[in-house]
Structures are given as C-alpha cells and as structure tokens.
C-alpha cells in the first residue's frame, strides 16, 4: 500500500469517525442544562479543536503503521481511538458523565502510553500526540467537574 493511501485511510478513519459520531450526537437541552464550570469553552471551539486533533492523530497513526504496524504502540493507537469514539455516546447520548469520566481517564492514559512508546522510535508521532494529551487532560478536568456538579 502506498504511503499516501495509508495517510489518507488514517485521516479518513479519524476525521470520518469523529464527524460521524459528532453528527449523530444531540448536545441540545441536556448539555445546556448541566452545571458547567467557569472554564468551559464556547461550543464553537469543540469542532475546531477536534478537527485539528483528529488530523494530528491520523498522521501519528499512519506514521506508526508505516514504521511498526504490529507494535504495542499501534495497538495503543487503536485503543485510544476506540476510547475516543466511545466517550461521546457515553457522555452525550447515555447522559452518564461519571461513566464518561472513566472512559476519558482511560483515553488519557492510552494517549500518554502512545507518547512514551513512540518518543524514541518516532519522536514526530509522539509530538503530534502532545496537543491531544493537553486537550484530553483539559476535557478530563471538565468532565470531572461536570460529574461532580451534576
């Protein structure tokens, strides 16, 4: 498989999966009624941030697949994406912030594990995950506050 096709497929999976889940999620009145912390970002920021992050995640995944397709890092990449895609239905569709906190906590751990595993063999892939780690750490704090306050 060509390098460009690999990158295209990884971007399709990350962006396409995120877009599909986002388009099926009604944040509506339930989310608006929650007692949210003062550090909650404006709603318009979420799709912008996630689009950028999914591109970075896709590139890091493609790089890892091309260099080490059967590695532990590739397995962790798959796990983090599954956890990422699972969080939205748990939080927004099931209205379960406490259970979503478990999912996002595991997601953050898997992101950090990916960074550690890729740091030496592919520092670029690891660095691509750094903004993702920061955003998910922030989202974890947001999720935790919502779980406690509601």
From TrEMBL:
Keyword Transmembrane assigned: yes
GO biological-process terms attached to the record: tetrapyrrole metabolic process
Pfam families (alphabetical): TspO_MBR
Annotated membrane topology: Multi-pass membrane protein
GO cellular component term, pick one: membrane
UniProtKB keywords: Membrane, Transmembrane, Transmembrane helix
Keyword presence, Transmembrane: yes
Residues annotated as transmembrane: 44-62, 74-94, 100-117, 124-148
Compartment annotation: Membrane
Homology family: Belongs to the TspO/BZRP family.
Designated name of the protein: Tryptophan-rich sensory protein
Native organism: Notoacmeibacter ruber
């Amino acid at each position: 498989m060509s390098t460009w096709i690999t990158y295209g497929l990884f971007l399709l999976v990350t962006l396409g999966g995120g877009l599909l889940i986002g388009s099926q999620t009604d944040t509506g009145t339930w989310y608006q009624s929650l007692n949210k912390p003062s550090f909650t970002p404006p709603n318009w920021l979420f799709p912008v941030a996630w689009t950028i992050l999914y591109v970075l995640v896709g590139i890091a995944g493609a790089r890892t697949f091309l260099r080490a397709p059967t590695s532990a890092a590739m397995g962790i990449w798959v796990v983090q994406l599954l956890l990422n895609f699972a969080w939205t239905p748990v939080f927004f569709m099931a209205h379960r912030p406490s259970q979503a906190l478990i999912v996002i906590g595991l997601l953050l751990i898997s992101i950090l594990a990916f960074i550690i595993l890729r740091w030496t063999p592919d520092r670029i892939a690891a660095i691509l995950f750094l903004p993702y780690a920061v955003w998910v750490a922030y989202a974890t704090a947001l999720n935790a506050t919502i779980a406690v306050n509601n």
